[in-house]
Design goal:
Largest sheet: 5 strands, parallel
Number of helices: 8
Number of strands: 19
Helix content: 10-25%
Radius of gyration: 22 Å
């Protein structure tokens, strides 16, 4: 796992770890009110939807405020995390090996290294003979001025990048292969996530939250199918964007529902139309990158992790994974709940069920 000299990971723009996918115009999709941790607010300079600079400044401030910074070993690349105990007879002990050769033992290890670093490429686009890149490499719109750009994907990065480049592009296409719900950033003069936060309650079923959210989205955007998107037919991660719907309405962006052929610099779309492009940008997601965990401890299958409650490998006590899932609310909020849950186990205030029960769950 790569290392760096900065707090903030993903939110440190051009992080020297090489692991950040942040682009210059990146803003977080949730408002500052639901994005903050519960025990420290953002500073007064922070905008309603924090950008990467706001987020990085906040995380640096948070680490300093709670005296975490002195405990961080910067520029310490982890090569391997491996068990050093007999599961049947001994308490957990994990060895953390660094690329420098140093090794240290710990009672518990929490892997919170993120999953937005190793690009998941679309094999079909490898046949393109022009300039191809993954959204992980995208940083700013200037190199794409006067270029015809096809953005493949309909997640947050895809919509951000399409809106970034479309204003100075003679033609920008957004390829949405699956159905999507695009949340507005503002509604009724308020942050949309501040409105939906009111229904983020364990007593409110997920399907009720989904229906309420989709009703609000319909009030804001109307029928997404009229913009060229498919209607979602299965559970999927929502997208949040302030401008892409307007860019589509202004015909700065054209929506297509799939690519059927790549021939040189020409793309053929599912509706039978074709177009020649300078650059396709694949916002096609990421592979889970856990090369420091031995496969006999945890094997990634179909880009998913077999974890109890998305956090615990049932057969390996003392090892936890935080942040390896998608959610319909602010990630920081979820990470805080996960950290508290793990804390209670580490302190002995709670106990995990037997391995067989965790596998069954």
């Amino acid at each position: 796992m790569q290392c760096g000299s900065q707090i903030g990971g993903m939110w440190c723009y051009n992080n020297d770890s090489g692991r950040s996918s942040a682009y210059r115009t990146l803003h977080i999709n949730t408002s500052r009110g639901v994005t903050r941790f519960s025990d420290l607010d953002f500073d007064d300079e922070t905008q309603p939807f924090p950008d990467h600079a706001d987020m990085h400044r906040y995380l640096v401030k948070y680490a300093a405020h709670f005296a975490v910074t002195p405990r961080i070993r910067f520029n310490s690349e982890v090569a391997r995390v491996r068990p050093d105990f007999d599961r049947a007879r001994e308490a957990p002990k994990w060895l953390v090996e660094l690329k420098s050769g140093a090794t240290e033992g710990f009672d518990a290890v929490i892997a919170a290294s993120g999953h937005l670093t190793r690009p998941l490429h679309a094999p079909q686009l490898q046949a393109f003979t022009g300039h191809y890149l993954h959204s992980h490499e995208y940083r700013e719109p200037e190199p794409f001025v006067a270029k015809r750009v096809c953005v493949v994907g309909v997640g947050n990065s895809a919509c951000d990048i399409a809106s970034d480049v479309c204003v100075t592009s003679p033609g920008t296409v957004l390829v949405a292969r699956s159905g999507v719900v695009i949340l507005p950033k503002l509604m009724f003069g308020r942050a949309f996530t501040d409105i939906t936060a009111r229904i983020q309650h364990p007593l409110i079923p997920r399907w009720v939250r989904q229906r309420a959210t989709r009703l609000l989205v319909w009030l804001a955007h109307g029928d997404m199918a009229k913009l060229g998107f498919k209607r979602p037919t299965e559970l999927s991660h929502v997208t949040s964007n302030a401008t892409v719907v307007t860019d589509i309405a202004y015909r700065r962006i054209t929506v297509k529902q799939g690519i059927t052929e790549v021939a040189g610099r020409t793309l053929r779309f599912a509706d039978g139309t074709t177009g020649e492009f300078d650059t396709p940008i694949a916002a096609t997601g990421y592979e889970i990158d856990l090369d420091f965990i031995p496969p006999e401890v945890l094997a990634v299958r179909d880009n998913a992790l077999p974890l109890y409650l998305r956090m615990v490998p049932p057969d390996w006590p003392g090892l936890f994974f935080l942040g390896f899932f998608n959610t319909d609310t602010a990630l920081n909020m979820v990470f805080e709940h996960q950290a508290r849950w793990v804390r209670e186990i580490l302190l002995g205030n709670a106990a995990l069920p037997p391995a067989a029960e965790m596998h069954a769950a």
